[in-house]
Amino acid sequence: MKCLPLILLLALGIGCRETRVGPGPATALRGRRLGREELLACLGAPPEALYQPERLDAPPGPGLTVHTFGQETSRCGLVERRYVSYVPRTLDARTTAPVVLVLHGQGASAEAMMTFQTRGTFNRLADDNRFVVVYGNGLPTSFDIGGLPNSGRWRSEYTELASTVDELGYLRRIVEDLTARTVIAGGNEVYLVGQSNGGGMALSAARQRPDTYTGVAAFMPFVGFSPAGPPRLVGSRLRHVMFAYSMGDPALPPRYAAEVIAPLARAWARALDVSDRDIEAPAEATLGDVVKEGEGREVDDDIVRATRNSTAKRLELRSPNGVLRQLVFDHAGHFWPTRDYADPAPLLAEFGLRNQDIEGAEEAWRFFRE
User: Fold this and answer.
1) Domain ranges within the chain, ordered by starting residue
2) What is the spatial distance between Cα 152 and Cα 105, in angstroms, rounded to a whole number?
3) What CATH number labels 6-368?
4) Which long-range contacts does 162-167 make (Cβ < 8 Å, 24+ apart)?
5) Which regions of the chain are under pLDDT 50?
6) What distance in Å separates the CA atoms of residue 220 and residue 200, rounded to the nearest whole number?
């Protein structure tokens, strides 16, 4: 995969440098913090990666903070993990309000997910609907975007680096940290949202910990090539599951949506006890084509042409145990669907035109609260 210039540093899914993960004597390193260069080498990241966990790479504002805590890894010693939280000023300490955990895609960061991908929409929804937003951050890897602080990747179960760090433990620690800092009361409803590599991470966490999360929404997810289906979810806390994907996603392998994502969504429906008969006949609604994506753009590129004017439909399956919703785009690009945004032209050749008929954050939040 080719390396892209600095203007593209907020893109997702770009692996500019391949660096092998060095061996690590796990027992000898336990509790020890490696030096910066040694740590990056152990994590497989290039030496110039901007691993700066305590840096907030976003305009400061009320309610927006970055927090860190130490986490043990299997072979790289103790690492500093980070997350960015947005807490509306209207929420009191020890709030019982819901928590929405948002996970970025490969190579991006917490701040890139907040600003570049979702355009701050989750924060605005939090102000209006009184919930806490948390943007998680994966650790550095070879999939580093040069110039982007804390560019990272989720080491989910389907990645070759799955055993490096306990990502489920990291997500749990975020909620524990919010509780310890008296931001939340504890026992709050927690929802998981992710895009691309982050969408796969969200599904992985929800599958393995269905009593931890109330809902999960995966946008344009990459889940490996033989993803495990969930256990039977009847009686679990998890009752809302959303898949949002494009049948012509240019950033994923050909036919990936049809051959991997759609069958996985059906497996989740079965786990919610939806019958096979209902799975074959979901409730379907066509969403309004309110934006003609790419109209007026003079870009001579096959991927741009292939992702112009995408449309979406909503498929829904319900049972007494929960609901499985799919937002299916006919040929949208890979980025987060949002209404008011035009990506820089160089990005379009890699990821295509994002769908702008819907606002992904609004769709996810409305679904969770139904």
Assistant:
1) 6-368
2) 8
3) 3.40.50.1820
4) 163/74, 164/21, 164/43, 164/73, 164/74, 164/75, 164/76, 164/139, 165/71, 165/73, 165/74, 165/76, 165/79, 165/139, 166/71, 167/138, 167/201, 167/204, 167/205
5) 1-25
6) 9
